[in-house]
Amino acid sequence: MRNNFRYKLFFFLFISSIATSYSNTILRGKAPTYKGETLQFYSFPDIITKRPESLGTCIVDNSGEFQMEFEINSIVLIHIDLGKYDGYVYSEPGKNYELVLPPRNSKTVDDRLNPYFQPQKIHLGVSNVGKKDLNILIQRFDQVFNPFMNEYAVHKYIRKSKETDQFRFLIDSLFSGYDEMYFQNYITYKMALLDFIKYSGGKQSDFYSKFPATEVDYTNTGFRELFNQVFSRFLYYFSETAEGAKINEDIFRYRSYEKIHMAVIKSGLFQNDNLVDLLILKGIYDEFFYNDYPKDNLLAILDSIQQVSKIQKDQDIIDNIIWKVTRLNVGKKAPGFQLYDQVGVMAGLDTFLGKYVYLNFVSFNSYACQIQFPILSDLAVEFKDSLVVVSICVDETFQEMKGQVENKNYSWPFLHIGNNLELLYEYDVRGYPTYFLLNREGEFLSSPAPSAIENFKNYFSKKILNPD
Predict the structure, then answer these.
(1) What percent of the chain has pLDDT over 70?
(2) pTM for the full model?
(3) Which pairs with CB-CB distance under 8 Å and at least 24 residues apart come from 110-113?
(4) What is the distance, to the nearest Å, from the Cα of residue 330 to the centroid of all Cα atoms in its chain?
(5) Which of 120, 157, 306, 331 is the 20 to 30 A CA-CA neighbour of 445?
């Protein structure tokens, strides 16, 4: 079975390099429990940072019907924000999908306030496709594979190879007759996870030579999962091998992409330049979240790769890495937005240019926020000539926010986040309240800023308005 899959994998990667024209794909359905709701569609084109990309929104009408149209040129895993659920569907160019949504199950107040809440992932049903549709095939495979994988992960040290061989034979007997290349490659990558899991807790680099793909398969979700697990902290682990012994010097002393690239190529483990560059990008990105390499050196290497890379997807990944690790740095322009305030007027950062902005993310359902609102009210009055307090409210509805503001008679701008939940990602909001101080040009001056109860008044008055 494995040789058969490897042949098909090579063939797919060859034909996938041929440009495909864009075609319209339609997602539609009828979901009465969602009537009046706005559905958000998004994808994750970046294999490394997984930065979400909004694909648009549509409103479910009073009869429960909805329709969204996309123009794509390859298979895309499209997600829909469904409250407690993260629904997804594999979408092929030119196809029309009748989706079956789960009954509406909105996030609770606790869910919305929990920065670590993760919606339950649901592979959405499709009612108008046959048994050979990619969604049906992957659903069938996952129903067989996932229980075995979960058990195997728990018992990896005692499970006998005979049992895994039997499982491989079962998968082959069930799915080898389908010639859908994306699906066959998906199986190859997922089955490789069984091999890789043996190495967890040991020398991760020992598996590098067994990685089943010789080229980059950007869109295949099986490739993405396997790639990110196998090559987690690639530079760090590669530096522990004989072939990568000079990697640390290449980073610390030379800050050289060329030297790192050459070391990986000379190892003989990988020969495809595109794959090697992606490995280096993955390694650099992961190290920003550890303290083994200087961040400035990592950024310098990223800049070098960006200057020589001719692959647009890699350019996009580099942009996303730089954005993600520097976006909240002092001096950076704060992410923009356009939100409705408590009186229904659209406002954005440009609205407040010329004054310092004490930007905060809040919820009226949070006790920590409630006890700081009176302090914010005093700050808004005392520093009205130089500072504007701006509160972005994450509560479920605009009316809920408006009622609370009017009831408390708060006079500073409250903006409702609405369906712009990507702001929480862009500002890396992990709890409420979260504060930032922006200068008069809308750039970060303090990120994060002291909270209202951490004597922001003294900080702003002495260090910003009247520095020594």
Answers:
(1) 93
(2) 0.89
(3) 111/84, 112/363, 112/365, 112/394, 112/395, 112/396, 113/363, 113/365, 113/366, 113/432
(4) 23
(5) 306
